[in-house]
Amino acid sequence: MKEYRNQVKRRMQREFAFAMVLVPLAVVTMIHMFRVEPIVSGSSTLDFIGGFFNGVRAPLVVAMSFYLFALGFHDRKSLHMDDTKLKTVRIEEKDERKQQIRLEASTKANWITMYLLLVASVVASWFHQLVSITLLVVWTVMMVITIITKGIYEKRL
Amino acid sequence: MKTKIKELRKERKMSQEELAAEVGTTRQTITSLEVGKYTASLVLAYKIAHFFGRTIEEVFDFSEVEEM
Fold this sequence. Notes:
The complex is a heterodimer. Chain A is mainly α. Chain A has helices at 2-35, 44-79, 83-94, 96-125, 129-156. By secondary structure, chain B is mainly alpha-helical. Chain B has helices spanning 5-11, 16-23, 27-35, 42-52, 56-59, 63-67. The radius of gyration of chain B is 11 Å and the shape is globular.
């Protein structure tokens, strides 16, 4: 149990460090959004899309920060649990079936996202080249990350 | 994969929750194993068989695997 407690502690520290980067980033994004002059393209559809993405970007960063803090809070609670309660939490987390579910779900979600990005990129190319290229860049980055992580785990396992 | 977990558990008059706690897994995993929806890892299979004082082959039915 001591080992798991230490693991929770280390995870909490990592999440806190990550949140420390994200929170200022969120604040900077928010300030930037209010300061930047709106770009008027002349097309109401494009303005709408641009506004939509600008509106989504900052709350997303803020939500991520809160999510990380919430996770940290959950872990902090685990640190103060007695051994019996902590054992239950550990079993819930380490259960092999749940791990497999998480793995299968995230792998499928990753591939679905990649296919959707490609389709969206093609569809976007009919209307807006920049959006299409951005989506293609995101797809490429995701593909590269997938290949790299796959390579790492091929060596590890 | 078919297993004898349910029979062995009933013999010992244990609940799924109790067995799960003994082998360090969740009740849902025991349910899935009993209905054959989930195939246990070697470690979990060993833990379950060891808990009942049986061999892995006595608890888990590998006939379907052999046919593959």
